[in-house]
Amino acid sequence: MNTKTRFSWFDGINYLLVIIVCAATLYPFLNVLAVSLSSYSAYVENPLRIWPKDMNLAAYKEIMIHPVLWSSYRNSIIVTACGVAGGMLLYILSAYPLSKRHLKGRKIIMVFIVFTMLFNGGIIPNFYLMRSLGLIDTLAAIVLPMMFSGFNLILMKTFMENIPEELEEAAKMDGASEPYILFRIIVPLSKPIIATLCLFTAVTYWNNFFQAIIYIRSVDNWPLMLFLKEIISSASLAAMSSGGNSAEQGIMDVRPETLQYATLMVVMLPILCIYPFVQKYFVKGIMLGSVKG
Amino acid sequence: MGRSGNLPYLIRNKWLYIFLIPGILYLLVFKYLPMAGLVIAFKDLSLTKGIVDSEWVGWYHFETLFQSSNFYRILKNSLLLSFYQIVWGFPAPIILALTLNEIRHMFFKRITQTILYLPHFISWVVLAGIVMSFLSPSTGIVNHVLNTMGFESVPFLLKPEYFRTIIVSAEIWKEVGWGTIIYFAAMSGIDPTLYESATIDGAGRMRKMWHITLPGISATIVILLLLKLGNILENGFEQIYLLYNPMTYATGDVFETYTYRIGLQQGRISYGTAVGMFKALVGFTLIIMANSVSRKLSGKSIW
């Protein structure tokens, strides 16, 4: 192809635009990483840095000995694991029958599900429900309200609709029961969409702040995001009171600001580690799920 | 099939209905019960008495709401914020998707996509932390740049006039790359022979983008725009709650944050429920309207 060798002004502008957007996307990550590894005085001297100066791990050491970091990390892991496991079970069980066009009552059940996507009771009736169930200040109050969403269910249902029916028919001929078909045939074939939804649900739970701020009271039950919010609040208070002229502090000195950058890195770490490996799945999963059958 | 066919059908497919039970129970308890809980808005709820025994007050809380000046403030804030989110945030992923689509170096394209999808997976708490440090008057990078250019530091997060710009910019940074995926899905459905015949007719890249790619994704654009308009009262709780403060309530306070403050922090439970219910009802009406417009225009339903 001769188009491949020609590099026109059109390409030039295109590449330039994409590179600028990518740089703008990456900059905050690099900056946070660089500052979290630098001394406070290096940060005050040039906060724009994307390369650490006076490189040290003091801020990380400081945050690692914070007792709430570990309890909140544990809580976030519990919440995420329970939310993903429960959610997937509900999605798989519900999406399979709904992917059958012959299912009687399918339309009514879909209306029942779609309605929950369009209308909701809102913050306070939900709070009242959790209170009545005795779940205030428990991790279950974070897990339960967002375990099952119509949007994700429809993604999985659409995917299952596109699985060739012959496979099931053959299994049925051999006398396989529906649970066997679902868990031994449909679930393995649905791996791309299950992987996608696992990732989405896990990220939603890991990042969730809304349910936590509403339902969680005691520090013991804080998930990671409430801990991070606390660190950020103390950092911004410190920034307001310090006035910026305290660069003469010792090099190893850890201040709320650098501590905050280290905490940001620690909180983002699991996502940054998993992300490159699952990236190829979710794009495929969304594309397959969003094609209307 | 007549009535007589139903029972054998149910027996034959019993497992399908058994599979549906957990999901339906879940929705009944966690979605429909809170909807029933909206009766709180018509009562004067006392937590000691419970919902059933609390007194009915009819439309009292809604009347209070419509007479309060706060209501017009949050309505205006919510609409204006959504307006800017649409004006700046809606075209951004379209332009980016069109640009990325023209890049033919596959390795470069994959790397850029990996980078651009990443911010979507970052929590608002993390992003709010970054925004607050970047805008900090004493040590933030924005004021550092302003200072080196000879300007005074500006406490951006304490100034109501900057609040919308900050929220909209942060949202675009977070979601612009992610927003391109759906347009790529639409682009992959465009018939490649259209491009080939256009090339034979001597059309340049710019013309092909304008006359083939853009029309090819226009149905998706229309549906997404309608969806955005239908959700015009949804501003998102987390980003606003994390970045606003009493100094910026004038431009930052929206339905989600107001309901939370009034209902849960100040304990005016019934009034807060009424505020939430007003938003939910208007939102429902708007999205139903958006859907019927979508059906008329493109023959497709939004959901």
From TrEMBL, chain B:
Family matches, as SUPFAM superfamilies: MetI-like (SSF161098)
Keywords recorded for this protein, A-Z: Membrane, Transmembrane, Transmembrane helix, Transport
InterPro entries: MetI-like, MetI-like_sf
Pfam family, one: BPD_transp_1
Keyword match Transport: yes
Entry's Gene Ontology cellular component terms: plasma membrane
UniProt subcellular location: Cell membrane; Membrane
Stretches assigned to the ABC transmembrane type-1 domain: 75-290
TM annotation in the entry: 15-33, 83-103, 115-135, 212-233, 269-290
Biological process, per Gene Ontology: transmembrane transport
Annotated membrane topology: Multi-pass membrane protein
Main location: membrane
Similarity comment: family membership: Belongs to the binding-protein-dependent transport system permease family.
Record protein name field: Protein lplB
Lineage: Bacteria, Bacillati, Bacillota, Bacilli, Bacillales
